[in-house]
Every structure is written in structure tokens, then in C-alpha cells.
Amino acid sequence: MTLNPVRVGICGLGTVGGGTFNVLTRNANDIARRAGRPIVIEQVAYRSPNPECDITGIKTTQDVFELAANPDIDVVVELIGGYDVARELVLTAIENGKHVVTANKALIAVHGNEIFQAAHEKGVIVAFEAAVAGGIPVIKSLREGLGANRIEWLAGIINGTGNYILTHMRDEGRAFEDVLAEAQALGYAESDPTFDVEGIDAAHKLTILASIAYGLPLQFDKAYTEGISRVTAEDVEQADNLGYVIKHLGISKRTETGVELRVHPTLIPKERLLANVHGVKNAIAVMGDAVGPTLYYGPGAGAEPTASAVVADILDVARDISTDHRYRVPYLAFSGIDEVDDQPQIMPMEEIDTAYYLRLLAVDRPGVLARVATILSEEGISIEALIQKEVTDGELVPIILLTHMTREKHMNEAIRRIEAMADIAGSVTRIRVESLDEQE
Amino acid sequence: MTLNPVRVGICGLGTVGGGTFNVLTRNANDIARRAGRPIVIEQVAYRSPNPECDITGIKTTQDVFELAANPDIDVVVELIGGYDVARELVLTAIENGKHVVTANKALIAVHGNEIFQAAHEKGVIVAFEAAVAGGIPVIKSLREGLGANRIEWLAGIINGTGNYILTHMRDEGRAFEDVLAEAQALGYAESDPTFDVEGIDAAHKLTILASIAYGLPLQFDKAYTEGISRVTAEDVEQADNLGYVIKHLGISKRTETGVELRVHPTLIPKERLLANVHGVKNAIAVMGDAVGPTLYYGPGAGAEPTASAVVADILDVARDISTDHRYRVPYLAFSGIDEVDDQPQIMPMEEIDTAYYLRLLAVDRPGVLARVATILSEEGISIEALIQKEVTDGELVPIILLTHMTREKHMNEAIRRIEAMADIAGSVTRIRVESLDEQE
After folding, report:
1. N or C: which end of chain B has fewer CB within 10 A?
2. Record-annotated residues binding NADPH (chains A, B) (predicted)?
3. Catalytic one among B59, B122, B140, B205?
4. DSSP 3-state assignment of A97?
């Protein structure tokens, strides 16, 4: 072994920081044989000690900026999370000529364009495999493994908390609030679960995936985001009866008019592999023009699964550290993203095409169903299936509809008109339906 | 774009060669933006023209060795298949200082050690993503994406023909021979299907996967290989009744005594993602010590899926072409494989531990079942489930058994003793059972 060690500074010793420290330490010999050179932890910056980590003999600091200025460090590993300090830390490390590895999806989704621009100017690597889908090497697969392809669409279960809740709602017929409380007690959900259950975390990850799939600047602000907090046990059951499973998906498609970027609950056919991804696991289906359908599955969070991705990035940095920057994989997979004139636009949600599941409550009176069907027809929406349930709730009849593909704005108008009907109680439940055929 | 083009020579213009030509041509602009430099097809060597490819303006030859000597070529892409000429071609290309990309699993599994040694001495890349599981980037995922991990086991559906046959046997209750004939008519199986249905092709791929998972020299001759030609419609049905699906798997596990390397029909629980991989699709489950369970799914064969992997390798070569060889990803993931003293051995099949499904035909007479149970007990094998079916075939009763984990040699002895019983007709059907928990 004739190459010098690569010297790493770890910022943050929480869940992921601790996992990274332990994996680098435990598997040091194998990792050195893979890199062709040792990877050593030069310094760790942390606020509170992690009882899982034995940092005996390791140089430590409380100040991440001291670490980012340490001349003995080649790679700064940002695992402190959040936006502001993390952004300043990463930009400082870049300014100091350090390569950066981060697991921070919010940082990359929101400040990625600025960070990559700064890194490009300094000729340093910013790697972020751990920012999406934990230990699943989906960034590497999209940027390199599928590099031959024009990506057509991708769809993923990219938030473990949401999938845990939907899995238990389905398996046990329970309500959202009930399972959420359990997930919080078990530590699978935060005490403020907004980021996870309202889809913000998934939208961060989807923004990153779409950018590297199509070579677009990061545009988190244009993502459509809808959470799972309004999915009911009844919808889960009705979907099941119709042959579907409800999953919280991040979906991005390339169409003739632009790129779709949307996170929402989605009915998918039971036989899809994505429908069989349970609990806190993640999976991403990717369709390429050459390869066809592919799928990547694994743990989307957790100390060592996320560390697995962080350390893989460190290995990549170790291999590319002496490489001319022009030969490296571009941050967002394609070089010259800013120079493309006819870059496709992110489509407004009103313009996307999809199918729909609708559930409404109608007064049990002749002609109501005909009126609903007429409204849909007038909006150009054709019905694939219609189920009028037995009367269970006084005189209100639940009606379940599946539509063929239509444009979101037409559905918005149809729902507005249906909700205005005197014989319809409350609001119409609308969940989008996608076929996402990965077996084709 | 300031870097020179990378110049590729394609040997073979059959299914994969034609697909590679077309993908490189169709997606040339995107590929150049990914590589940061154009990738141009400098020359194509082929015997018969491929009507799918427009080679107007491309330099051609009938002689692959002329191509391998062409000083204007940086990367020789070997897509002629077979052993002898392919081996000579690849070694010649290496000798001429060319980088090599190949889709040839047989070549790598059988001659890989020699080829990598030669390439190492010349400091050139030999890339082979397309050799395993077609378009699925599983080599990249194992060598790079999971580089932080000590791999514990992997198991895959890595032969599309076999999976096509087993899928249709299960869905339609048909016999092996019947579905095979259909697969041959549809072009999914060769007229001589031995390589596919007897597991040789899968064993080639498994040999490669295991080597890069654990950093072992390629040892195809030590793989245990059992095909699917003796799987009956009845076994498929009985497995289904017990909650299992029969898949033809390549399995490799790292144990305390060595490395398992085995291809055989396997009962796996229905709820596994692997059990839901249908038709000609492939999937590989990989368990790492840090990441936990992961899975990679997609098309295992076909012109453009395989080309997707070939072109991804060409992209990697384009990026690493000027890199010091010591920084490149080692051929079999780890450097210095030959220098390891205590390299684990491939275990003989008799020494592996697994569970079993057994099906036997007994004369319907008191005491037969007790005798079978006694033999199993005497061999230290405990029974998980035992089903004695209704008498259907004269006076012979089918008995179905599931055992707990035991050692193969004990099962061999038990089966020898059971088959020697006067009241047992014919031979005992034995199919191994694996839990392969990817949801853990």
C-alpha cells in the first residue's frame, strides 16, 4: 500500500455521525483494501458524547468550524443536520479546499445549487448519497449505473416513517392518528412529525432524485407536496378491495411539456414490488429508456444504514481525490446544467395527468349518481369503476370511483362542482392512482 | 467541453452489440454531458450485419483482432461471447494497452483471474457490469455503493429463462417441459437450454458476485450447481400450500467455516420481494453488516438492458482513463486479493446448513411415517411440518416434510436411509428452503 491515508473529519456524533464513526472503525481493514489506502478519522466535532462510540485517542473539538479549518483534514463529513449552520459549515469547508460528504437532504434540496457552484469553483467533491433513501445506493445507480439511459420516470417510497404508518394502517385496519402515536412512542416518528407525514422530507429527496435523473437544477420550491395525515382507514380498505395499496410516493416523470415533481398518497396495484415494501424500508423504481424498469430497495434511515452511504461516499472521495475535477461525476449527473437553454420546466400540479380514486358521501336519493357521472363526463373524465356501498351512515351512501387518466385541473373542477351539489355531504376524498409498471 | 473524446471499438454486433451501438448513438449527447467528453464509436467488428443498426459512416472490420490493434481505439468492448476467442481477444486488447468492457459472464467466471492479472500488470481497466444481471447495476452497488460493508450474504434470481419457466409453472400449474417448449418458441430459451435451466449460467454470475462481495479469487469450479429440470408442478403446488414460492437462486453466504457458493431451486416465503420477481426479470438481495438488507431489481437480459450496463462501464472508463491505476476500483472490489493468507475457502456442499422440503411416496401402511421420522431424528434433523396427503395413486401416499436447519451431509444420509426403506417408492424429492429475510 503506497498511497497516503485519506484523513476524515466527522462533524456531528449523533445517530448518523456515531454510525459513521463505528463503521469506519470496525471495517477499517476492509475499507482500506477497497480504497487502496487507509481512511483515518483525523478529528471529530460534537456537542454531546455518543455512548455507542469509543473515541479514545481521537482528536475532538466542540467547534465544527475549527474542524473545517484543520489543515490535516481532507474530507469534511457534515452530519449535524439543519439548514443554516450546516450551509455555513459546508461552504466554509469548500472555501478551505476540503471535499465534503453530507447526509443532509434539506441542505442539498434547498441550498444545493449554491453549494455545487462553490464546490465547482474550488474543484472539490460534494457527495450526498446518504441524503436520499439511507443505505440504498440510488444516487450512485442514477448518476453512474444508469448513465447510459434517458430516465423516463422514477417513483419511490422515500420516507420510512410514512411507510411505517401506512403499513400498519393497512395490516391492522387502524387510524392514522393511532399508528402515528405508536410510531412516536417507538422512536420511528419525531414528536413533531410534520416533516415526515406531510411529505416535506420526501419532497427534499425527490427534488434531489429528479435533478440527477434529468440533469436539472434543484427546484425544491416547485415540488407539489401532500402528506398522508388525511388518509383514512376506510380509504386503505377500499383501495385493498379494488386491488390497490396506498403508498406515500415521490413521483417524477419526464413528459413532453415538462417534468412532474410530486409527493402524495398514491394507489398502486398490489402486485407491484413497491406495494410490497413494508415498514420503515424504502424503495425507488426507476425507468430508463435502455434498461427498462429497475428498482432499488433497502433501509431508508438508521445509524449504520445511513453510515453505509456516508462511508461509500468517503470511499469515492478517496479514489477521486487526486483526479482532475473535469473527470469526476458531475454533482447532478450532467455537466453544464446551467448552460442548457431549453431546460425542461417543473410542471404545475394542475397540468399533470394521472388517474384518481374518489370517495364521496351522497344522500341516498335517485339521480345523485347520475349527476356525479354527468359532471365527470362534462369535464372529460371517464370512469373505470364505480362502487355504491350499502347505506351505513343514516341516509348517506359512500360512493367509490376510479377514473381513467385525466388532467389534474379538470379533476379540480369536477370536484368543485360535485362538492357544490346539495346531495353531497362534506368534501370529496381524492387520491391519485398510478400504474408504475415495473414488471413491463 | 475541453477533454478529448473517448474512442470505443465494439466487437460483435449481435443482440448486445447492436443494443450497445444503438444506445451509444441515440443517447450520445446525454452520455457526453455525463462523461464530460464525447464517447465515439471508432470501429465495429462483426460477422453479419444487424438490421437494427445503422452503421453508415462507421469504420468496420470482420476481424476483432484488427480492432484490438487499432491505435485509434481506447476501449475494446467484447460482445462476441464464448470462451476461447473472447479470452484471446481480451488478453490481446490488454496487451495492446486497451481498456476492456465485456458482458461475458462465462469468460470472467472461468478466466477472470488470469485476465485481471494481465490487466493489472498493464494498468488497464476491465469492466464487466453487464456480465451479471443485465441492466441492474449490481456490480457497481456491491463494489462501490456497499463499500462500507462486510457483506454477509447475497441471493439472487440471476437467470431470466429459469425464472420465466418457474413463474409460468406456478401461475398456470404447468409442467417444466411444457413451459420450456413455450419459452423456446418465444425465444426466451435457447434450443439447447442446458446453460440456463441446469444453472451453469447462474453459477457463472454467482461466482462473480461472491468474489466481489468477499474479495475472493474467482472459483467457478467450486460452485455447487443444480438446475430446475426436476422441479415438478406438484412441488410448485405443495410449496404454494405451505406459503412458499420455488425460485432458482444463486446463494452465497459467509460463514465461520468458509463461503457458501450454490445454485439450486429454493423455497422462499411468499412475502419476500424475491418471491415476487416474475418472468424474465432478475433481482439480487444483498445483506451488509452496516446497511442491512438491500435488493436490486431489473431486466437480466435483452439488447438494450444489457447495453445499459455496457455503456455505464464505458462511462466509468471514460472518467478513469487518465487516473493512476492505484486509485481505481479494484477488479474484484478489494486490492491485494492474492496476498491474503487466511482467505476463506469455498465450502463443499456437504458442509452447508439449510432447511429442506422433502416429498416422498410411501406405501399406505402403519408405521411408515414413524420410521421416516425416526430416521430423521437419528440424523439430528428436526421436522417443522409434516403433511400426509390423501391416497391418490393406488396405495402410495405422498408425504410432504419441512425440516428445520440441518447440515447437508446429514440430510444426504437421511435420504439414503429413507430411500432404502421397502415401503418408500422411488427417490425422495429434496428442495432446499431459505428464509432470506430482506425485511428484517
Report:
1. C
2. 105
3. B205
4. coil
pLDDT exceeds cutoff 60 at B440: no
Whether the CA torsion A170, A175, A179, A182 is positive or negative: it is negative
Q: Confirm or deny that A64 is annotated as ligand binding.
A: no
**With contacts defined as CB-CB under 8 Å, which chain B residues touch A134?**
291
pLDDT-based confidence at B56, cuts 50/70/90?
Answer: very high
What's the CA angle centered on A232, arms A231 and A237, to 5 degrees? 110
Q: Is the dihedral of CA B91, B95, B96, B101 positive or negative?
A: positive
pLDDT digits (tens, 9 = 90+) for B244-282: 999 999 999 999 999 999 999 999 999 999 999 999 999
Task: Write down the residue that cell numbers 469515492 correspond to.
Answer: A316
Residue type, A432: R
Which residue of A52, A99, A101, A146 to mutate against B (max B Cβ within 10 Å)? A146
Query: Dihedral of CA A390/A393/A394/A398: which sign?
Result: negative
Distance of residue A86 Cα from the nearest chain B Cα, in angstroms: 24
Would you call B222 a catalytic residue per the annotation? no
Range ranked top by mean pLDDT from A366-375, B11-20, B393-402: B11-20
Distance from CA of A226 to the nearest CA of B (A): 27
The reply, when asked if residue A12 is annotated as ligand binding, is: yes
* Mean model confidence pLDDT for chain A: 95
B439 vs A278, A305, A322: nearest CB: A278
DSSP string, B376-409: HHHTT--EEEEEEPPP-BTTEEEEEEEE-SEEHH
Other residues' Cβ atoms within 10 Å of the Cβ of residue A288: 28
Does the distance separating the beta carbons of B296 and A149 come in below 8 Å?
Answer: no
B190 is in an annotated binding site: yes
CA distance B312 to B309: 5
In this prediction, residue A440 carries a pLDDT of: 56
pLDDT category of residue A203 using cuts at 50, 70 and 90: very high
CA distance A336 to chain B (A): 7
- Asked if the model's pLDDT at residue B392 lies above 70, the reply is no
ipTM here: 0.97
Arithmetic mean of pLDDT over chain B? 95
Q: Could you give all domains of chain B from N- to C-terminal order, each with its CATH number?
A: 6-135+304-339 (3.40.50.720), 138-299 (3.30.360.10), 349-433 (3.30.70.260)
pLDDT of B64 strictly over 70? yes
For residue A311, which of A10, A53, A42 has the smallest C-alpha distance? A10
Using only C-alpha atoms, what is the Rg of chain A?
24
Q: Which three-class secondary structure state does DSSP give residue A431? A: strand
